[in-house]
Structure prediction request, 383 residues.
Amino acid sequence: MKAFNILGVFSLLSILAIGGGTAVLPEMKQMTVGYEHWLTDPQFRDIYAIGQLAPGPNMLMVIVIGYHVAGFAGALAAFVGFFAPACIIAVVVSRVWDHFEGSAWRTSIQRGMAPIVVGLMLAGTIAIARTAIVGKDSEICLAFAAVVFVALYFGKKVNPALLILAGGLLGLIFLR
Amino acid sequence: MDEPIENPKSEANKLKVSLREIFLTFLIIGATSFGGGVVAYLRSSLVTEKKWLDDEGFLAALEISQALPGLNATNMSVIVGDRLRGIPGAVAGFLGMTLPGAIFVFVLGFFYASNSGNTWLNAALKGVGAASVGLLLAVTLQIGHKQLEHLLDVALVALTLILVSFLHVPLAYVLLTVGPLAILLYRPHPARPLTPDRSGLDKKPAD
Prediction:
């Protein structure tokens, strides 16, 4: 049953998602595109883009990956697999977290993991860039990315959602 | 940092928040937090509006969310839901947080699956994908700019990046090797106590 396979892959990704969704993107791409051949690079990019358009967590796009591979059962398997393990860990740990209140190691863990999370998020950015800024339109795509980056990084109070939508609309004009 | 967790708990017990209210509160956050910045939405709803948590309690819960696997948004929904009403509260919070986006991606995903050759749809998603790269880089650098000021941190960022992006080492191995190494490098030291850096927390995206 493919759905069990999907459940297994996304459960593992759930546990590995230290630093959030972006941090686990390279591994998700490696497993779904590289090892399992469930998706092609452009499909991975398209499905990630669907997640970007959605309200709430972008990573709900795992539902689309599951659906693409194994229909409704796959969608459910990906959803449960990607969210249940992390949520269970969160509830259990938050209940015992107070017991480590005074521990100096807790701060060490937080301090030590911070740069690793930044490295993983950069890797996640590169993973999407390798699927999104390629092919005959790569210059136009790079220009889109550069404009969004400059607007968000240097601009004050620009709504990221509007820039993402603008990317889609400009895509209709320039990337067809 | 001394009593961040207990406050909201006792306060919450007095409030007797209904599961329906937990669900609806997170439903609104889940339906309106577009394009990142979920932490700002969470804070204004949970701290300012509902007063389920005070500022310190909010940051403490966020710190736990951050340190553990999983997304900030969903981790916060189960942690806060659990503090208010136990496991049923956690389930209500999680379902509220994810339901709007889940329905959205399912409908769009269904449309995508049945229109795979549609040039308009492909062009739009390509544009969104390209714009996302700029968004991800901006968010990552905003969170990381402090990290990139210290040499040791830069080295750890670079090491992680090279292992994952260029040597394609499986993430589990990276976390199990670089993780303990980094923690050891920042091990507790009586002469120079560490303070956790919370400055980047606000900028975490709704990833």
Observations:
- The helical segments of chain A are 2-16, 21-35, 41-53, 62-96, 104-132, 138-154, 160-174.
- Residues 90 and 153 of chain A are 31 Å apart (CA to CA).
- Chain A has a mean pLDDT of 94.
